[in-house]
Design brief:
Belongs to the FCHO family. Helix content is about 40%, strand content about 20%. With about 675 residues, the protein is of the alpha+beta class.
């Protein structure tokens, strides 16, 4: 590609003079490489300006938060200002976090710029030979042009003398000069071709090197831009979560709640004012009595034991016409009232938490774990392991430590938990838990998808789980299910090829198996078992390697050692038997079972978005359906046509794979 910039095509014709750029192709390529440094600096400036914009926006949102704090505390609308404050604070944090990510990206760009300078310096040193070849070619090009012009001039002079009939002596002299000019021109051509060959070789190597540098530069720049895009996308997701949380908070605070909260905060008390009664004037007395209001309470009310006792103090003034006894009366009143003993407030009950098996701090990142479990169903057509239908169904579950429920309860504004699914391009269908998850369907990247929790629904779910099993150390929440369908045998971790031969009453079956490292290269297949059901009249049974025989259910069971895709594990199973009569029914079907851990067959993975939570563990496991030991004899026999997989009916008939053992081989005799 870069060779087209250098004028190499003119080397085939040494008489064609260098025009245009005059062998400046090397300079064009070199300066283009240097322009990469300018592009890096400009990208850093652009990102720095974006970081400044995000910082300004964050400060503006902080000002809005202060406005909400300074909102009037009077009236029933006052609690709503707290919702605005929390939302503004979170938005400020979102944009502040984006500013920090932009600054981190600027450091990455600057680091790449430093590496770029070193590469360019090294390249300049490596290109010294090319520079010399270019200069030599330019010098010899000038010499060639002069020799060409001198030769043409001498030839023209000789022709003129011949036409004019000049003296013989001058003709001889002109012929000698023309001959020398021709020799000089030929020597210049020879030197030019030699220098041109060296130039072509050096320029070809340099052009290839320039192209490699430019490709690496563009890849690195695209990677930096991808980081820029992902940072903005993460922030947009977080902002969407904040807006969703704000909307939920506004909806959750009803008008009745606002009025009730105002009444609780501004109320002056629930007790009716006591009544003063005038008795006799002979003495001062204090009477203690329980008050019962017939309009609200009755003698058999459930609240009698919880309500505090209420006291009425009735003052009967001393019959005296003077004011001299007022001090004594005050002292007597204080002494009398001070001797009263009030019962404890039984209306306030202690909650024991008239303990969690995991202690979590509200300041540290809260741990969660995830589990990806997949089940594979596959059908193989007889002896052709490359003819197979594969279906993978999976589910994603997230686990929460029991201590997190206490933190959720203690924090009215719990940070939103969000996560991202990656490597989703192979997934055909998925079904999220609509009660717990939100998602933005407008996300453009088909390989990733972001979700965030309905935190109120999550708290309710975890609280319900805690009530059902209070001693559990963690609680699970099912998040989504998905499905992968394919006719690619590479999607199956174990490839099977079977053959069935019938000769009279004798039936022979063989099964070849080998691991497919492309699916899960680092995962061993464990608990590998092969099941072969036989006819009820089968006798003289022989098998290699030996298998266990279940006479009641009439089936053979091979238990194989662990299979490793990295070692290209493979093997062959054989069995033969004789029937009392020639078998006329369809050939039997082989069923295979295995388990793998540490990887997912679909390739899907999960990661958290944000820093308030941390992923402590992602457990991956895949398996083949139900346990072989619980299956009856007839279930494993599936009736399939000789040719399948091409019609709509065939596809529909395979929709019930989940209820059977997962890997089947249809034998053709």
């Amino acid at each position: 590609t870069w060779k087209s910039i250098s004028p190499l095509n003119t080397l085939n014709n040494p008489l064609n003079s260098r025009k245009g750029e005059k062998n400046a192709g090397f300079d064009v390529l070199y300066h283009n490489m240097k322009h990469g440094q300018l592009a890096t600096k400009e990208l850093a400036e652009f990102v720095r300006e974006r970081a400044a914009i995000e910082e300004t926006y964050s400060k503006s949102m902080s000002k809005l938060s202060k406005m909400a704090i300074n909102g009037s505390p009077q009236g029933t609308f006052a609690p709503m200002w707290d919702v605005f404050r929390v939302s503004s604070d979170k938005l400020a944090l979102c944009h502040l976090e984006l500013m920090r990510k932009m600054n981190d990206l600027i450091r990455d760009i600057s680091k790449y710029g430093d590496e770029q300078v070193k590469i360019h310096r090294k390249t300049k040193e490596e290109m010294v030979g090319t520079v010399e070849a270019v200069q030599a070619l330019q010098v010899h090009s000038g010499h060639l042009q002069k020799s060409k012009e001198g030769y043409h001039s001498k030839c023209l002079e000789l022709d003129r003398l011949r036409k004019d009939g000049g003296p013989q002596k001058e003709l001889e002299k002109a012929e000698l000069k023309s001959k020398k000019a021709a020799e000089s021109f030929a020597l210049s051509i020879e030197k030019y071709n030699r220098v041109g060959g060296e130039f072509e070789q050096k320029m070809s190597e340099s052009a290839q090197r320039f192209q490699e540098i430019e490709e690496a530069h563009l890849r690195q720049m695209k990677q930096l831009i991808k980081g820029y895009s992902h940072s903005i996308e993460d922030t947009h997701v977080q902002v969407g979560q904040v807006h969703e949380e704000f909307k939920q908070n506004v909806e959750n605070i009803g008008i009745d709640n606002l009025i009730q909260k105002f009444a609780e905060q501004k109320g002056t008390g629930k007790d009716r004012p006591g009544t003063l009664v005038l008795l006799d004037r002979s003495s001062l007395s204090v009477r203690c009595s329980e008050e019962k209001d017939n309009n609200f309470y009755s003698s058999d009310s459930d609240f009698d034991d919880d309500e505090p006792k209420k006291f009425h103090i009735q003052i009967r003034p001393v019959a005296s016409s003077g004011r001299s006894s007022s001090a004594a009366t005050e002292k007597e009143l204080k002494a009398t009232v001070g001797a009263l003993t009030l019962p404890p407030n039984r209306g306030v009950r202690q909650q024991v938490e008239g303990p969690s098996p995991i202690s979590l701090s509200t300041q540290e990142a809260w741990p969660v774990a995830a589990a990806i479990t997949e089940y594979i169903n596959a059908y193989f057509k007889g002896g052709q392991h490359n003819r197979c239908l594969v279906k993978i169904t999976g589910d994603l579950t997230m686990s929460f430590p029991a201590g997190i429920t206490r933190i959720f309860t203690a924090n009215p504004n719990v940070p939103v938990l969000s996560f991202r699914l990656v490597n989703m391009s192979r997934i055909d269908h998925f079904l999220p838990n609509q009660k717990l998850l939100y998602s933005d369907p407008s996300q453009s990247d088909p390989d990733t998808r972001d979700f965030w929790f309905n935190m109120q629904a999550l708290q309710i779910h975890l609280q319900r789980e805690a009530e059902l099993n209070p001693q559990a150390s963690y609680y699970n929440a099912g998040l989504l299910k998905y499905q992968v369908s394919s006719q690619d045998p590479g999607r199956a971790p174990l490839l099977l090829s079977a053959e069935c031969q019938r000769s009279g009453t004798v039936t022979r079956v063989s099964l070849d198996y080998h691991c497919c490292p492309a699916t899960a290269p680092s995962t061993q297949l464990t608990a590998v078992q092969v099941l072969l059901p036989l006819d009820h009249n089968a006798t003289d049974l022989q098998c290699q390697p030996p298998a266990s025989w279940n006479a009641e259910e009439r089936r053979l069971l091979w238990k194989l050692p662990n299979l490793s895709p990295t070692n290209h594990s493979k093997g062959t199973l054989c069995a033969s038997w004789q029937c009392l009569e020639v078998p006329r029914g369809p050939p039997p079907s082989l069923a295979v079972q295995f388990v793998g851990s540490g990887a997912s067959l679909s390739g899907m993975d999960v990661e958290l978005v944000g820093s308030r939570y941390r992923m402590s563990l992602v457990k991956k496991r895949f398996a083949t359906g139900d346990d072989l030991n619980t299956r009856t004899r007839g279930v494993c026999y599936l009736t399939l046509d000789e040719e399948w997989g091409s019609s709509v009916e065939d596809q529909a008939s395979l929709s019930h794979w989940q209820q059977f053992i997962v890997v089947f081989v249809r034998l053709t005799c």
